[in-house]
Here is the input.
Amino acid sequence: MKTMNASDFKARCLKVLDNVAADGEPVLILKRGKPVAQLGPVSERRAQEGLRGTVHILGDVISPVLPANDWDVEGGDLN
Here is the structure.
């Protein structure tokens, strides 16, 4: 992974962005020698797409779990 001082990044930000987009290699941004940020390419695949097909509905997901008469609404009764 490439590293770069924050001051260099500030001076060449647009060029660095173009390079990351072109070659996909991330850049670690340093401030006073310590890592503060990492710039990397955007994944074309969304995280949710990896979950497609992994969820199976086994029952009613709309109705309440408990019947209404079991609810305690500030000590009152719903009926």
In short: Residues 1-41 form a domain with the YefM-like fold fold (CATH 3.40.1620.10). The CA atoms of residues 26 and 40 lie 4 Å apart. The longest helix spans residues 6-23.
